[in-house]
Input
Amino acid sequence: MKITILGNNSALPAYGRYPSCQMVSLYGVDIMLDCGEGAQVQMQRYGVKWRNLEYIFISHLHGDHYFGLPGLINSMNLLGRVTPLHVFGPAPLESIIRQILDVADTKLGFPFHFHPVGGAAVQLVDTPSFSVSSFPVEHRIACHGFVVTLKTSGRRLLPEACRQYGIPTAFYEQLKQGEDYIPENGERVKNEWVTTNGPPPRRYAYCADTLFTESFL
Output
């Protein structure tokens, strides 16, 4: 998991600092958290490739958190993007984006999927390698934070114990998922005999704009 802070300034841009935008990179997939003005410039500056960008999450509808999004979508279209883009954010954001595209008579050359975010904490994306969930925070308008979780690869094998019990390597993946091994003689080899706890999942929480609160801890 790699975190790149493209912008961390408040509502007004400042020299050398840009409004909110962060990138989480994992397993060749880039996830964008908010998209303030100047996001495209910062992506170029830090070598973030839009081709790897599959998910964009917008926390709320204050301009410093999403004014860069329409331009980014338009640029990816001009550059020939064909892979799907998934945008998650407050429900009114979809009509804002589509109106901007409509008045310019812009036809996207890639599938654009909008997913409204609202209400209580909920899981938004779940893949074999990572997940993304949202949680409400305390702000003047409806606002959500996001948690990106890099899933664990499962339990850690004990190679010597596996060999001692004659477990074939073809079964190692099942062991990582917590399964017991049952050989032809029917004598079960319990998982905890040949594995130990794996590494805990890594998590990155983006809290957006919020008052101090322990409500989402």
About this structure: The first strand starts at residue 2 and ends at 7. The radius of gyration is 22 Å. The CA atoms of residues 138 and 210 lie 5 Å apart.
